[in-house]
Amino acid sequence: MSRSDDPGHYFQTTSALEQIARKAAKSNNTNGNPIKLPSKILAIIADPQDDNQIYVAEAAGCVKRINIEVGQTSVPHSKTRFTNKVSATFSGPQAPLTSVAVSLKSDTIFAGCWDKSIWSWTLSTRKPGKRFQGHSDFVKDVIAFTLQGKEVLVSASQDASMIVWDVATGEKLRTIKGHTRGILALAIDPADYEPNKASVTLFSAGSDREIRRWTIGLSSAVEIQPSPLIAHETSVDALHFDSDGDLWTASADKTAKCLSRGREWEEDSAFEHPDFVRDVAVDEDGGWVITACRDEEVRVWDKGSGKLHHTFTGHFEEVIGLLLLPRQRLVSVSIDATIRLWSLKSQDLAKAITEAEDERLGKEKEKVPEQKEGMLTIEEEAELAELLEDSE
Question: Whereabouts are the WD repeats (predicted)?
């Protein structure tokens, strides 16, 4: 007996049906010039070799290299838009890919997978490389860097551990434990990182709400005290450093925060949201903080004042990741399977704000019922009711 995947074949509440209808209607918008892919997009990183290219990890089990600045094609007689922007595909996994990292030194791209392993491919040939296996649960994040001229990979998992790998041999150098729940994000402290140094400072964050710091070398891994740093009430989904070396965080407690290096990682500012915050980015050129939220929105905040400046509306599912590119370009990705490109330049933001306001006013105008000829106003209806009461 076959089973249907069509949600229309199952009982659903009125609110669920309304949500489906709303998202279906919203999916037709072209805000941000969407690039449509076949499956949910779960991660995004820049291409270190080309400012117009990005890498995304898909739930379909592949990594794609996308050119965000070329034209789009469509299939005749189809509502689905396909794109010719895919410049490379790295395939093999049969489970969703959650994260992606690139190493130019070893000409390798890595992807963390739900199958508990890290897959790799040769960038130039797209051929599968080593498969790193050692975790007992989903791999949630991966990061590659160089220590003393040697290429190193660190993976973070839902099993609450991190593993340090030798990229050249595929050997597991060590397992790092400290978190009590799944680890969701990794970030290298740029303040003291140099490829030829003997160690690197790595920050990790997870669903235990803790942020931990580690000094990692080829033969050692030591946690930095005091530990852990507690800045959020629940899961921390993203970590990013700005040009001042301050740490930016995104959390399921519905906030994005800036933790000040100069004040021993104390909270410097917080940005409140109506739902989980999935990612955060800082545009130094414009002085903007950008956040990705589960409520489908991409928000632009004034870094200095902390005030909301603009909301980019376009995605029709949770926004998962953000990436800043040169020339104040912002890329957002979502589980709606679209990649969207926005401009943070002052003149483009001003135009976007005007267009959003015009659209809002237009919708409000549509909501006002048009009075048909011969119909009574509310005041006239009330007057008539009084007259009828008097006549009884």
Answer: 132-175, 270-311, 312-352
The rounded distance, in Å, linking the Cα atoms of 138 and 131 is 14
For 333-388, write each residue's pLDDT tens digit.
Answer: 999 999 999 999 999 999 999 999 988 887 665 655 555 444 556 666 666 566 55
Q: What is the pTM of this model?
A: 0.86
- The whole-angstrom separation of Cα 195 and Cα 5 is 49
> In which band, very low, low, confident or very high, does the pLDDT at 25 lie, cut at 50, 70 and 90?
confident
Cis peptide before 7 (omega within 30 of 0): no
With contact defined as beta carbons under 8 Å apart, do 295 and 272 qualify? Answer: no
Rg (C-alpha) for the chain, rounded Å, is 25
Neighbour tally for 160: CB within 10 Å: 19
Amino acid code (one letter) for 53:
Q
